[in-house]
Design a protein that fits this description.
Elements (H helix, E strand, L loop, with lengths): L6 H10 L2 E4 L4 E6 L3 H8 L12 E7 L5 E10 L2 E6 L4 H12 L6 E4 L4 E7 L3 H5 L15 E6 L2 E6 L8 E7 L3 H10 L3 E2 L2 H11 L4 H4 L25 H10 L3 E8 L12 E4 L2 E12 L4 E9 L8 E4 L2 E6 L15
Parallel strand pairs: 1-11
Antiparallel strand pairs: 1-7, 2-5, 2-6, 3-4, 4-5, 7-10, 8-9, 9-10, 12-15, 12-17, 13-14, 13-16, 14-15, 16-17
Helix pairs in contact: 1-6
Protein name: Aminomethyl transferase family protein
InterPro entries: GcvT/YgfZ/DmdA, GcvT/YgfZ_C, GcvT_C, GCVT_N, TrmE/GcvT-like
């Protein structure tokens, strides 16, 4: 989704102040019924049995062949669950969940995405705004947790689920009240930021952007470095296929890289990586980092060169593989007041 919001302005807000994000079109699916817990366990790549009410787990929805459908935030709401997926993955997730629900008895999956709009404030100062909507100290809100609060006679689901490495909070507002809430957040000092600014921040912290890194063809969690989201100790759709792929070892592995300081052009997806004139991989996604003043990105490379500190060429430009994250966020070590 493209917007007319200036990328530089949005980036500065997200990294150094408070950015205001509008995640319009976010997929929201409520899972209810006696079979809700079993369904969520079958659908997601990580075991959600440990979740207590108010806690959130991040997981993947996989096809039977082990390829990725979507990334999901699983909110435990007592005996029910709310699954949240990124807007670009909403339609695929909706079809996937509907199909899977037909195989699990005593469960209903309701698409409630049209009832709400998801707004977010992210940045080292964002907690100053988010705390105005909480009835308890914001310092006691753990990462990946949520609470429901009242605002202007409406329920707001407020979660701490940032993806920039800075403090970050989402607000699920009733659709009819979202414009009013957005205006109020802006009046409180949040500056509007678009998806491109958010994408840069995500890359700097290595929060995978599936729609940009995964590409148009089917891909597995291991192609984008999300093996940590796959728990092979529990049964879920796609487990056996994913386990076979993991045990066999993918032909190529994801790496992070940083271009030489003289490089300013951002390479396209698919640009080849060369060592000694031999193609050893291809760019998955790349951005210009204003904080680092460097072009940075990810790539999939032959396993033999999938290590930190390897030098190669991209479009005749020198680059080196590095360990993530690319930088230390402004919020690191900063206490919540």
């Amino acid at each position: 989704m493209k917007t007319d919001i200036d990328v530089s302005t949005g980036y500065r807000a997200l990294r150094h102040g408070t950015g205001l994000l509008d995640h319009a079109g976010t997929g929201l699916f409520r899972v209810a019924g006696p079979g809700a817990g079993k369904f969520v366990g079958t659908a997601s790549s990580r075991n959600a049995d440990f979740l207590l009410e108010g806690q959130i787990a991040v997981a993947l929805l996989l096809r039977a062949n082990g390829t990725v459908v979507a990334e999901a935030l699983i909110h435990c709401d007592g005996a029910e669950y709310l699954l949240e997926v990124w807007p670009a993955q909403r339609d695929a997730a909706a079809e996937h969940l509907r199909s899977l629900a037909e195989t699990v008895p005593d469960v209903t999956v309701t698409d409630v995405g049209e009832r709400y709009r998801v707004l977010a404030v992210e940045g080292p100062e964002s907690y100053r705004i988010a705390k105005k909507y909480l009835s308890f100290p914001i310092s006691s809100m753990a990462y990946r947790s949520f609470a429901v609060e009242r605002w202007n006679d409406a329920d707001l689901l407020i979660s701490r689920t940032g993806v920039t490495g800075e403090y970050g909070y989402k607000l699920h507002a009733p659709a009819e009240a979202a414009d009013e809430l957005s205006a109020e957040l802006a009046e409180l000092g949040a500056q509007r930021a678009g998806p491109d600014a958010l994408d840069i921040c995500r890359m700097e912290m290595r929060f995978v952007n599936l729609e940009r890194e995964g590409g148009p063809d089917p891909f597995t969690p291991f192609d984008v470095g999300l093996q940590w989201m796959v728990d092979f100790q529990h049964e879920f759709l796609g487990r056996d296929a994913a386990l076979r792929i993991w045990e066999q070892g993918p032909e190529r592995s994801p790496i992070c890289w940083k271009a030489d300081a003289s490089v300013t052009a951002v390479p396209e997806r698919g640009a080849p990586l060369l060592i000694g004139g031999i193609v050893v991989g291809a760019v998955s996604h790349a951005v210009w980092s204003p904080s680092l003043e460097r072009v940075i990105g990810t790539a999939r490379v032959d396993r033999a060169v999938a290590a930190s500190g390897v030098e190669f060429l991209i479009d005749d430009a020198q680059a080196r593989s590095i360990s993530a994250p690319f930088l230390v966020p402004s919020s690191f070590g900063r206490p919540l007041e």
